[in-house]
Model the fold of this input.
Amino acid sequence: MPCTLKLAIHATPGAKRTEVAGAYGAALRVRLAAPPVDGKANAALLAWAAGAFGLPRGAVELLGGAAARQKLLGLHFAGEAELSAARAQVARWMADPAAA
Done:
C-alpha cells in the first residue's frame, strides 16, 4: 500500500552544492546548487529528494511553494517500512546536517 510523506522544505538556491543544511524551524533546510530561475531550483530539489530517498523521480512531487523558499514535497513510498526509514532519516538531518 503506497504511503506518502509530506516534507516541509526551506530551500536556499544558488549554493555552491546541493546539500542538507539542518533544520529551519519545522522545515528541513536544503541548499540548492541551482539558480531560482526558470524552475531550475525546483527541478534540483526534486532530483535531490529522489536521490536522497532512493525514489524514482515520478514518486516525488512539489505540492506547494513553487515560487517561494518554503516548499512542501510529497514523497510516495511503496510501504510503511520505507516511510519509517525516510522519517528517521529526516529526523537525523534535522538534528545533525552532517549525517547527510
